[in-house]
Design a protein that fits this description.
The chain has about 325 residues and is α/β, with parallel strands linked by helices. The chain has 2 domains: about 5-145 and about 295-314, Rossmann fold; about 150-290, Rossmann fold (3-Layer(aba) Sandwich). It is about 30% helix and about 25% strand. The protein contains 8 helices and 14 strands. The protein has helices at about 15-25, 65-80, 110-120, 150-160, 175-185, 230-240, 260-265, 295-305, and strands spanning about 5-10, 30-35, 40-45, 55, 85-90, 125-130, 145, 165-170, 190-195, 205-210, 215-225, 245-250, 265-275, 285-290. The chain has a 7-stranded mixed beta sheet. Strands 1-4-5-6-7 form a 5-stranded parallel beta sheet, with helices on both faces. β5 (about 85-90), α3 (about 110-120) and β6 form a beta-alpha-beta unit. α1 (about 15-25) crosses α8 and α4 packs across α5 (about 175-185). It starts with a strand and ends in a 9-residue tail after the last helix.
Amino acid sequence: MQGEIVVIGGSSHPELSHAICDGLGIEMAPSRVVRFANDNMMVQIDQNVREADVFVIQTSSPPVSDGILELLITIDALRHASAARVTAVVPYFPYARSDKKDRPRISITARLMADVIETAGANRVLTMDLHAPQVQGFFRVPADNLLASTLLCDHLAATRDLSNSVLVAGDVGESKDVGRYARRLNLPIAIVDKRRDGDDDRAIATQLIGDVEGKDAILIDDEVATGGTLIEAARFCLERGARRVEAAVVHPVLPGDAVKRIGESPIEALIATDSVPIPPDRRADWIEVVSVAPLLADAIRAIHTGRSVSALFV
């Protein structure tokens, strides 16, 4: 076990940081972010952290680049303040989709993010539902990738009659993740085969593997951005005879008019976690939020006490 546990909350998601501290039964350590006239940033920790076990909570949300820089500066400040260990807690990891060089002359930016977080002085990283599992291997320091499927499955089981439901992967790449949900809920799965051209979110469904006719379809995905994939998959399921469609995702990015688009689509409900903050002007009564704070608090407690984090995957 390290020294005293200390939690620093970044500016990206204060509500989640406070909820995690409530779960740990501690007060969040005070800190300040100062912007100078030249737009440079300074982070000051207003508490003694010498020989402490510090966890810095900063998710990826707009403005993403500012959030990354604030995280790096905070970690560096903590190292210079003689913290015994610094863990970067990044529920939604930035640039996680940029995990490979799939076209000429581009950056594998997820690897770059891992490198700069480590260079800033992080001793370990705690994140959640990485879009590509190999990103966990980009770190040279210990990295834990939590899964929110348990929380979402428990919410679905507690709030819905699932006796006539089928879990649907919006694309082939999501089928492995859907398998985890299916095993926990003991439900069948279906897979939408889609095609996407370019960097936009326009996806065209071409085939459906599995049976959705007369069933309540629940679309599963690790994140939703503009909603194009979910909307197209929902339309395709209804054309194949599904009775109704809902969606469950981990990271609700929802930029621009995404909430409006999904609200006008056949998707009747969106179940998402609070790994990313949903601004008040983008909330709707059909969006159900499941907090990941208890899971993150348990993981932080396990890391601090030297217990296994893998027990949280059960």
